[in-house]
């Protein structure tokens, strides 16, 4: 009997990650003392965001990303839609005035969910933790939910540092891996 429909089995001892994903890519972030700041997203931030999404390793680790990161028209349509929606809070993450990523809060099934994307060149410096903590300070409503691939140790560490706890699990097709991926559902309670 094989794996359930939509799931792929992995032979015992097989690599869990592609060869180009290093231990450094998965290491939980360490604080650096660099000042992380949030500001509203501006048009001139979008080329940075698009460039960040071209990183195949970052897409694989994050798992749940755009169908085709190279599709500029889809990228621009996505950002037009979310910037026009007053229910979605989006912020550019900066360090020393350099754009390093973005964070967002958005409604899902009458709850608030958060997500973030940090340039892989900046991973491991505490930027995601600082950005998420700053975004959460802007959000008055609790609980807040988040999701992370079960094997994304760094993202799970960010969420736990910000007070999230695992409340469930799910699975879904992950564009970054072209496969069904299991994920944890986490929540920051009131």
Automatic annotation (TrEMBL):
Q: Where does the N-acetyltransferase domain start and stop, copy by copy?
A: 36-187
A molecular-function term among this protein's GO annotations = acyltransferase activity, transferring groups other than amino-acyl groups
Q: Which PROSITE patterns match?
A: GNAT
* Pfam families to which the protein is assigned, alphabetical: Acetyltransf_3
Alphabetical keyword list: Transferase
Tell me if DNA-binding is a UniProt keyword of this record.
Answer: no
InterPro entries from the entry? Acyl_CoA_acyltransferase, GNAT_dom
Keyword Transferase tagged: yes
Q: What is the name attached to this protein's record?
A: Protein N-acetyltransferase, RimJ/RimL family
**Which lineage ranks, top first, belong to the organism behind this chain?**
Bacteria, Bacillati, Actinomycetota, Actinomycetes, Micromonosporales
């Amino acid at each position: 009997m094989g794996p359930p429909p939509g799931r792929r089995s992995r032979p015992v001892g097989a690599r869990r990650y592609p060869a180009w994903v290093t231990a450094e890519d998965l290491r939980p972030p360490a604080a650096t003392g660099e000042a992380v700041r949030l500001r509203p997203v501006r048009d001139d931030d979008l080329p940075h965001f698009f460039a960040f999404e071209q990183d195949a390793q970052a897409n694989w680790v994050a798992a749940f990303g755009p169908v085709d990161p190279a599709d500029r028209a889809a990228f621009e349509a996505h950002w037009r839609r979310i910037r026009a929606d007053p229910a979605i809070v989006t912020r550019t993450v900066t360090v020393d005035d350099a754009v390093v990523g973005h964070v967002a809060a958005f409604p899902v099934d009458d709850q608030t969910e958060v997500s973030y994307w940090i340039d892989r060149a900046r991973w491991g410096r505490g930027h995601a933790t600082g950005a998420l903590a700053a975004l959460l300070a802007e959000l008055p409503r609790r609980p807040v939910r988040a999701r992370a691939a079960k094997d994304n140790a760094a993202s799970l560490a960010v969420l736990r540092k910000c007070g999230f706890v695992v409340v469930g699990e799910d699975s879904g097709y992950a564009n970054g891996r072209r496969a069904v991926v299991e994920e944890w559902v986490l929540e920051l309670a009131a």
